[in-house]
């Protein structure tokens, strides 16, 4: 990279990071991406809060900075005692920092869902910057992951703008899901409570924090902005997907980039996965039939190799598009021979729908509506296809994981699904899945019928499987694109400094 004459140093700041504390896809990215960057020679590190639920015996921590105090400012003349910063390091593959605060982190049973979440995440942003000020290790780039870390670019652009220890650091703001912008629903904000992002940040603990749009501020002040897929980066500049921020995103279009998430191919490997009844690779994909039999047995479904088995592995929410099945499922199940296994939880109405569906069609539908760590891999390894009809999807990991295991994805053409799944073309024998574009139950119905028809031709079906298994969704590929993004961040930051 042209701006880096020595090894690049990058600090990721997030509300969660695997394997320490992982709630969703963000935690997986915050584990896998820094690891992939370190393999490229980048000194990539992570900063997250230290939560009470973290397993201290599994991840022994050492003191990195004791008695961290936030700097006093005109806006916050009292300052705030945070506590300590602890460090975990493993075989040079992982370096992570943990910000301690008894009141905001260690006394909380969960990562999210508190009335003072805005103050908790503001503390993470400010605590991180104070730690960097007082540390011998200084990153070249700080990556703020999603809205929870969105105040870091804002603080660096205002409170710390002339700080000699911080002003040389470039910022990247990473949007994982634009529909979450703060500790409130941004669709229902009064004119009085509207946060344009340009007003000064109030002192920590101020009640105005709960009205702040951290996402807007991250977008407004970061040197570069990225989303987790190229198509999503384009979609969010439109009113349909922009979540009321499309004007600002169009304004900053030259700083907006999309990089598709990856998966850990070593972890997601059907040739070595101990959760599978039979292990296999693209050359021995026919062994998947043993896993399909085992999966049906576990879910008490009849075993018939002529009947295709579809799977759902997902949060059951409106975003994921499963409301389309409210109209499509009954006519499909009544008129076509196939089976469906549902794994997930979420919207009570959708959970009730799938529970009722399993009761009405016990020979065709089975549902496991609670979290289970082992079942996703079993479904990937045994189901013939995976259904992902999302209304919108910033990146999506399920389709990549499913393809790695030879389960063919059925997806709507949006976000990361559009970037990772190529629609099957029978004439050319190309494609890695089945794609529909219009978000309605008729389009979904027609696509599932197309899937069931294609299943009748084993050679064509195996061709789709093998092409999907060969697709490269490794983090190594994504890490190379992030290096280019960081290069742009440093370049833009240097230009801004010259103009001040």
Named at the architecture level, the CATH assignment of the largest domain is 3-Layer(aba) Sandwich
Rg, nearest Å: 24 Å
Amino- and carboxy-terminal Cα gap? 25 Å
Net shape: globular
CATH superfamily of the largest domain: Glycogen Phosphorylase B
Number of strands: 15
SS field, number of helical segments: 16
Biggest sheet strand line-up: 3-4-5-2-1-6-7-8-9
**Percent strand:** 15-25%
Helix content: 25-40%
- Helix/strand structural class: alpha/beta
> How would a textbook summarize the main sheet?
9 strands, mixed
CATH class of the largest domain: Alpha Beta
- Any idea how many domains? 2
**CATH fold title of the largest domain:** Rossmann fold
Uncertain residue segments = none
Description of the structure:
The chain is built from 16 helices and 15 strands. It is globular and about 70 Å long. With about 500 residues, the chain is of the alpha/beta class. Helices cover about 35% and strands about 15% of the residues. The chain starts with 8 loop residues before the first strand and ends with a helix. It has two domains: about 10-260 and about 475-500, 3-Layer(aba) Sandwich (Rossmann fold); about 280-470, Glycogen Phosphorylase B (Rossmann fold), CATH 3.40.50.2000. A hairpin with a 3-residue loop joins strand 4 and strand 5 (about 95-100).
């Amino acid at each position: 990279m042209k701006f880096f004459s020595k090894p690049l140093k990058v600090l990721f700041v997030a509300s969660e990071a695997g394997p320490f504390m992982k709630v969703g896809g963000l935690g997986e990215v915050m584990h896998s991406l820094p690891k992939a960057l370190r393999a490229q020679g980048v000194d990539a590190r992570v900063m997250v809060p230290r939560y009470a639920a973290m397993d201290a015996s599994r991840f022994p921590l050492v003191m990195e900075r004791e008695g961290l105090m936030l700097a006093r400012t005109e806006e916050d003349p009292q300052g705030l005692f945070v506590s300590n910063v602890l460090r975990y390091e493993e075989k040079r593959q992982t370096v992570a920092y943990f910000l301690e605060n008894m009141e905001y982190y260690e006394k909380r049973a969960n990562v999210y869902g508190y009335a003072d979440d805005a103050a908790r995440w503001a503390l993470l942003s400010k605590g991180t910057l104070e730690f960097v000020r007082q540390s011998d290790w200084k990153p070249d780039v700080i990556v703020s992951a999603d809205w929870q870390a969105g105040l870091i670019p804002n603080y660096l652009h205002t409170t710390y703008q002339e700080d000699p220890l911080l002003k040389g650091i470039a910022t990247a703001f990473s949007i994982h899901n634009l529909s979450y912008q703060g500790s409130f629903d941004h669709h229902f904000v009064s004119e009085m409570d509207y946060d344009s992002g340009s007003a000064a940040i109030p002192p920590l603990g101020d009640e105005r924090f709960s009205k702040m749009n951290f996402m807007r501020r991250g977008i407004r002040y970061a040197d570069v902005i990225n989303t987790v897929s190229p198509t999503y980066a384009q979609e969010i500049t439109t009113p349909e997907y922009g979540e009321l921020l499309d004007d600002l995103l169009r304004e900053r279009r030259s700083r907006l980039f999309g990089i598709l998430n990856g998966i850990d191919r070593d972890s997601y490997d059907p040739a070595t996965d101990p959760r599978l009844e039979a292990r296999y690779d693209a050359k021995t994909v026919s062994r998947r039939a043993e896993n399909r039999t085992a999966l049906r047995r576990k879910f008490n479904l009849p075993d018939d190799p002529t009947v295709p088995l579809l799977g759902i592995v997902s949060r059951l929410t409106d975003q994921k598009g499963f409301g389309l099945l409210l109209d499509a499922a009954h006519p499909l199940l009544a008129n076509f021979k196939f089976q469906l296994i549902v794994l997930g939880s979420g919207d009570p109405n959708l959970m009730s729908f799938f529970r009722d569906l399993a009761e009405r069609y016990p020979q065709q539908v089975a549902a496991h509506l609670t979290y289970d760590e082992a079942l996703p891999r079993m479904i990937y390894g045994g189901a013939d296809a995976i259904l992902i009809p999302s209304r919108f999807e910033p990146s999506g990991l399920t389709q990549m994981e499913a393809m790695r295991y030879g389960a063919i994805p059925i997806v709507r053409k949006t976000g990361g699904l559009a970037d990772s799944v190529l629609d099957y073309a029978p004439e050319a024998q190309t494609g890695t899945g089945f794609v529909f574009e219009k978000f309605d139950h008729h389009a979904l119905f027609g696509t599932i019928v197309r899937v069931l028809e294609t299943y009748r031709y084993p050679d064509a079906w195996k061709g789709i499987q093998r092409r999907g298994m060969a697709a490269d969704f490794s983090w190594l590929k994504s890490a190379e694109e992030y290096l280019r993004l960081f290069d742009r961040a440093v370049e833009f930051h240097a230009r801004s400094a010259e103009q001040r």
